[in-house]
């Protein structure tokens, strides 16, 4: 049975994992984990791509010690961010992080030329101020020096195997991909100011891209037969592969630093109502559409815990004892986007709403989690209303599946059972697509999900009382 290596880079941490997948078998072992996050420099925010590459190298050495004959490797990351290369393949500068403020006001200028609804019907994306399209307009003269633009997972793929390309699921977060064809839209690329030829060809998940570079093999100790495979390189696309759904009547919440809430469809929803509700149509594995809304996710809680230098389990226990019915905030308020004094921002936002602000840390945590559950439930309800898709269960995957209080609050808010797990859904989805590309597995996404259901540690949370008036729950 082949061994597959998943390099999974999330917004707050990264890990390198080895896994095996075959009929009746799905296992995953972490060999290297490391922190990740935006780096502040002189008022701007950057991604330490070279530092992440060093961590990947460390992880691959650990893989080689365990399984030197590992057959494939694949990379997934968060979306929208990119690196620029010179003609000789050298990285130009340090990639900016999407939380950098340089894109403020850019979208207004774009929409003055191309109405926002028209743009939505071309690329299918919800309005997010940091979409690659807007970042490129803010980039400035560095674009003039560049010979190639690679989104982050493709950049690391280039450093691994020397192949330049753009994997479709991650490319669909850029705002430059035609929602109908799944390939670069000439008009969208022109709108960004990128000259023709800067973007590489798009390829689909499951494509075997080639062998690893000689220097990577020598440094890592991996065998010469190791191949780079394109998976759903947007981390949510890989996570959705590993949703352990029994049938199509499910919604998913991929909950980490971000919360991606939606349903899986066969085609995009491009209506004016969908646009107004700020839903996005991103590509998934096997040509599916991830119809979803980005919600702030665990970011606000993570920032509070870091600010307090506190023990999260203890905070969650205390928050569970806070009576229900407390204040909630809009977790997607732009003031919560940048790093900073998050607990004070929460208190200020509650005060502005006319309610008593949370006084203790436990009350702040409960406010954040109640607010997240409320946002998740409303997003599920909106996805059902706008798509017409029947939903009977919500699958919550990713790191948020460890947060039992959040899972229970979400079940109650939705009025639907929430199945929590797997926690490492992204890495599992990454490995599953690698295994299928290598011939260890056959079949559709449904077949892959049945294997997850058979092997994963899952917990079901039932609604505890009448849900919020979201219109999601079944009577």
UniProtKB/TrEMBL annotation:
One of its GO terms (molecular function) is ATP binding. This is Rhamnulokinase. InterPro entries: ATPase_NBD, FGGY_C, FGGY_N, Rhamnulokinase. PANTHER family: L-RHAMNULOKINASE, SUGAR KINASE. One of its GO terms (cellular component) is cytosol. It holds the Pfam family FGGY_C. Belongs to the FGGY kinase family. Residues 6-241 form the Carbohydrate kinase FGGY N-terminal domain. GO terms for biological process: glycerol metabolic process; rhamnose catabolic process.
């Amino acid at each position: 049975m082949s061994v597959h290596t998943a390099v999974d880079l999330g917004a707050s941490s990264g890990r390198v994992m080895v896994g095996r997948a075959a009929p009746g078998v799905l296992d995953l072992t972490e060999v290297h984990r490391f922190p990740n996050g935006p780096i502040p420099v002189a008022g701007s925010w950057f991604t330490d791509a070279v530092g992440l590459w060093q961590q990947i190298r460390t992880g691959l050495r650990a893989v080689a010690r365990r399984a030197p004959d590992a057959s494939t490797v694949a990379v997934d990351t968060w979306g929208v961010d990119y690196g620029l290369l010179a003609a000789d393949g050298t990285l130009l500068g340090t990639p900016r992080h999407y939380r950098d403020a340089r894109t403020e006001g850019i979208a207004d200028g774009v929409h003055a030329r191309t109405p926002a609804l028209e743009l939505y019907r071309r690329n299918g994306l919800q309005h997010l101020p940091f979409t690659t399209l807007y970042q490129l307009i803010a980039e400035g003269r560095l674009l003039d020096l560049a010979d190639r633009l690679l989104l982050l997972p493709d950049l690391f793929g280039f450093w691994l195997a020397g192949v330049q390309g753009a994997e479709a699921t991650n490319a669909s977060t850029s705002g430059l991909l035609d929602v109908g064809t799944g390939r670069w839209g000439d008009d969208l690329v022109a709108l960004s100011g990128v000259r023709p030829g800067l973007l590489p060809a798009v390829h689909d998940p499951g494509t075997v891209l080639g062998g690893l570079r000689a220097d990577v093999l020598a440094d890592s100790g991996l065998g010469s037969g190791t191949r780079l495979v394109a998976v759903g390189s947007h981390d949510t696309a890989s996570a959705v592969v590993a949703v352990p759904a029994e049938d199509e009547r499910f919604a998913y919440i991929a909950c980490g630093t971000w919360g991606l809430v939606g349903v899986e469809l066969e085609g995009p929803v491009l209506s004016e109502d969908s646009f107004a509700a700020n839903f996005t149509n991103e590509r998934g594995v096997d040509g599916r559409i991830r119809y979803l809304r980005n919600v702030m996710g665990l970011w606000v809680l993570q920032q509070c815990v870091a600010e307090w230098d506190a023990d999260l389990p203890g905070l969650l226990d205390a928050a569970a004892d806070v009576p229900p019915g407390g204040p909630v905030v809009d977790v997607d308020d732009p003031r919560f986007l940048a790093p900073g004094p998050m607990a004070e921002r929460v208190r200020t936002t509650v005060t502005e709403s006319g309610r008593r602000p949370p006084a203790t840390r436990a009350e702040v945590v409960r406010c954040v989690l109640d607010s997240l559950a409320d946002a998740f439930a409303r997003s599920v309800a909106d996805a059902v209303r706008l798509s017409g898709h029947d939903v009977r269960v919500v699958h919550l995957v990713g790191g948020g599946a460890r947060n039992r209080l959040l899972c229970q609050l979400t079940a109650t808010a939705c009025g639907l059972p929430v199945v929590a797990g797997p926690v490492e859904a992204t890495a599992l989805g990454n490995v599953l697509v690698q295994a299928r590309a290598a011939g260890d597995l056959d079949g559709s996404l449904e077949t892959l999900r049945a294997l997850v259901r058979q092997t994963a540690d899952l917990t079901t949370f039932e609604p505890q009382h009448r849900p919020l008036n979201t219109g999601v729950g079944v009577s």
